[in-house]
Design brief:
Number of strands: 0
Order of helices and strands: HH
Helix content: 40-55%
Structural class: mainly alpha
Strand content: under 5%
Length: 50
C-alpha cells in the first residue's frame, strides 16, 4: 500500500455533513445569538464587572 492511498481525501461532491444549522434557519441563529448577548450582559451586570 502506498502512503497516499491510506490518506482520506475530500472531494467537492463528497463532503461529510456535520449536522449543523441549515441555510434556511438564519433567523433562528440571529435570535439565539442575541439571546446569548442579553444573557451574558445580564450576568456581567449582576456580577458587578461593569
Amino acid at each position: 500500500m502506498t502512503p497516499d492511498a491510506a490518506a482520506p481525501t475530500a472531494s467537492s461532491g463528497n463532503l461529510t455533513r456535520t449536522g449543523g444549522p441549515k441555510e434556511d434557519s438564519a433567523w433562528l441563529e440571529h435570535v439565539l445569538g442575541w439571546t446569548l448577548v442579553v444573557v451574558v450582559a445580564m450576568f456581567v451586570t449582576q456580577v458587578g464587572w461593569l
